[in-house]
Amino acid sequence: MAGAETLVEFTRELREEGLSVGSTTAADLMTALDKVGLASAADVHAAFRCLTVSSPWHLEVFDRVFVRFFGRYLTEGLAMTAPPQPRSWTIRRVQRGGVEGDGDDAGPEMETFTGASWTERLAHKDFSELTKIEQAQVRSLLAQMMWRPAPVKSRRRRPSAAGDRPDLRRSLRKCVGPEGDLIKLEGSERKRRPRPILFIADVSGSMERYTEMLLYFAHAARARLGRMETFVFSTRLTRITRQLMRRNPTEALSQVSGSVEDWSGGTRIGECLRSFNYDWSRRVTRGGPVALIVSDGWDRGDPAMLSDEMERLRRTVHRLVWVNPLASREGYSPETRGMRAALPHVDDFLAGGRLSDLATLVSLLESLPERKK
What we know:
alpha/beta
């Protein structure tokens, strides 16, 4: 049913989908396969799931990858696990003057309400309204968020039997040998890789209630994508890519706060983008990245400079996305002078003040076309 190479590739695919599988998982899967045998596909499915799935929210992902790899070998139906259903939460309220308890006296004074699960509530709650406990829960959900950006063709090439270009090096190498008198042209094709991300976040005073969660989002994205350049700005631009490489997000954000000198200061978006375009653009925009600018648009600088620098940045990236946390609020309209100067040069304008808004952003990144239309 599956060889060692297939199990290694299967494990790698699970890891890319967000499952916490270790370096020895492929060997464990091979051992399990020897134990359960190949007579029952359902037994193999259950054994593999026990070794790789550690959260109920990963069951659906595991089933999808399992069928993609081994579906052609299945001779019987599998009872696929449905995604976990939203859990209910209960609020018990006590009338004024009463005390909540377990005794009989407390019963008539309490009302019970049942609603959506805590994940559903947090997904649609503004980051500025989160309690300390809810912030910790949102950080945990951000760390589990799946990132599968749309791939793009690389300039590097790999061997392929149905490639679009002859591989002369491999062809000539095979001329040396028993079949050297027969020249068989080997083919090659361009590799596919995830499109890089450029993350530029506003950490000025007006963004203070959203900065922490958005930087946790950036840390989770970097862990999933690998190739991601991150900058923050207020009155000056600071590169924090190296600080976000730390595995622990709390330590990473502590390093970031210690290296940013103008945290919670004023906002000069145009000047900071000018600094990026002239000092960093040629170094970090190779490969056609998607640029994400996270800011509420409140700007004390020159709107004309902001417009010019946005246009210059747009020419160097594949797509320019502006994420505004305030756009999550009902009735919001981008009327600030910073937003009016930037919007004509933006490909996508998205909200970013809630967990559900960030999920929408991830969905956009997963559906981007390979070429600009």
